[in-house]
């Protein structure tokens, strides 16, 4: 037994010693690498910066290409080239971006990034996807599409974002058609990706809003609302009558973001929808659209059986011009739920400012602030 313990201690000690020497070796190599990088950084970055600064005016010469290709053969110089290109893509916009993409392809930078996609280290794969997105080379499309089925959040996100930045409509649509409801990305992340697409957005929206997959369809309906293109408004409004609750909600949010009040009548109808979530969003969106046709329907919505519907209706009511005038009628009514929710909203700093402003500009008596205070006092008895 003692011998086993002794051997265990010995083996453990050897492992610790080996690990110690490994860490020392790694640190020495890192130091050597950094010294070498500092030594050649000025040469490589200076050469690249000179080419990039003239790229809008001059073609890259055969000699320059040869020099850049030689940089790509050296590990440390290649790292500097990669860093500088990513810096250029982040800071230089317009026609020069296309020339930088072509240059990245010509010197082998794109091929180098594509090769890294074969790594078993998913973090490296994700980083390479991100870099390919920044470079925006269509050479990467096929390889990126092959990776779409990998269920690793970091990889999935960077593949989709890369496709978004490259801006090829067909590839982007194909990628999203491959996705399923089990996609490990949040709605916010997917909307960010959709919003970031750099190609023909109208084409993409018209292909993906109508998918049977309610989740993906809803993502692109909402993103279309963020795009705020009037050409899409009629198509988004179609989904207000859709049987699917998620698509209906997405359409409401999209039209609210667009601020297009041509569909107020249809949205008012949704205050009677069987789904309380739809009614709640409809109440909120009517406040965004600021149309006085919604005032009376919103007063009625204050009596909804669901708290969220009543709360959104109260906020929307006081935000629309003329809405605060109707608070008198609500407080004179019999519905305790309606009175409580509208008073709770008016007690906030935003609501009370509205009340004081109304009292200041109107001679109606008793003053609204007095009516509200009286109601609160009677309620607390």
UniProtKB/TrEMBL annotation:
Name of protein: PBS lyase HEAT domain protein repeat-containing protein
A Pfam family: HEAT_2
InterPro entries xrefs: ARM-like, ARM-type_fold, PBS_lyase_HEAT
Keyword line: Lyase, Membrane, Transmembrane, Transmembrane helix
Transmembrane segment boundaries: 6-25
Provenance organism: Thermobrachium celere DSM 8682
Molecular function GO labels: lyase activity; oxidoreductase activity
Entry annotated with the keyword Nucleotidyltransferase: no
Keyword Transmembrane among UniProt keywords: yes
